[in-house]
Amino acid sequence: GQNIDQPTEMTATEGAIVQINCTYQTSGFNGLFWYQQHAGEAPTFLSYNVLDGLEEKGRFSSFLSRSKGYSYLLLKELQMKDSASYLCAVRDRNTDKLIFGTGTRLQVFP
Amino acid sequence: DAGITQSPRHKVTETGTPVTLRCHQTENHRYMYWYRQDPGHGLRLIHYSYGVKDTDKGEVSDGYSVSRSKTEDFLLTLESATSSQTSVYFCAISGGDSAGTSYEQFFGPGTRLTVL
């Protein structure tokens, strides 16, 4: 089966750095996605990791360790608009479907 | 962003009535998905389609059916709505490359359904 864990809520200060962790157990792993979802809106794609290592995209970076079943999303120079939920999703190699975690709600304070 | 619309955006209905939600895309993506999102559960896959008239069940398919008669449209039907189906429903698409293999999913704006 599949299981994805991420913290329910996090808080941080504007201008700071925050790391959102995601751990997973899956019978067949074929990539990990991060999505951002503002309240009342649709999820939007942030990053996709299929190989180990760090992928950097502007203020956002995503890291993957397949051997540890672990990923993190790193947000730098936090802005108020970064207040949102961040969803971790694993692509199951056997079914080709995405399995989503319950999301981490990030609140950024001035 | 990816040319996906959902209709209606909001609906209130009564228990026992049939409901159909529509997802329309203008991107010619191969795959289409229906998810529901509930507090504490994250996004859960209801049904998906990998081509016209080709559909399959997701993890929470009971009480739902789908149809895809055209590439651009994917319909979700609640045959007899129940209060447990009160949720936000998202449509998503993927497979926009020429081989139909890109995995990134783009989401529609969502439909908020309330079943009284």
Explained architecture:
The complex is a heterodimer of chains A (110) and B (116). Chain A is 0% helix and 60% strand. Chain A is an all-beta fold and 110 residues long. In chain A, a hairpin with a 2-residue loop joins strand 6 and strand 7. Chain A is globular, with a radius of gyration of 13 Å. The mean pLDDT of chain A is 94. Chain B has 116 residues and is mainly beta. In chain B, a hairpin with a 2-residue loop joins strand 5 and strand 6. Chains A and B meet through strand 5 and strand 9 of A and strand 5 and strand 10 of B.
Task: List the main descriptive attributes of the protein structure presented here.
heterodimer; A: mainly beta; five-stranded antiparallel sheet; B: 116 residues; seven-stranded mixed sheet; four-stranded antiparallel sheet; 11 strands; globular
Q: Which structural category do the helix and sheet elements of chain A fall into?
A: mainly beta
- Of all protein chain pairs, which has the greatest interface, and how many residues does each chain bring to it? A-B, 17 and 18 residues
Biggest sheet features of chain B: 7 strands, mixed
Classification by helices and strands of chain B: mainly beta
Helix content of chain B: under 10%
Give a count of the beta strands of chain B, DSSP E runs of length 2 or more: 11
Distance between the termini of chain A: 41 Å
| Number of alpha- plus pi-helical segments of chain A | 0
Low-confidence stretches of chain B: none
Largest sheet of chain A: 6 strands, mixed
Order of helices and strands of chain A: EEEEEEEEEEE
| DSSP strand tally of chain A | 11
Rg result of chain A:
13 Å
| Shape estimate of chain B | globular
* Fraction of residues in helix of chain A: under 10%
* Total number of helices of chain B: 0
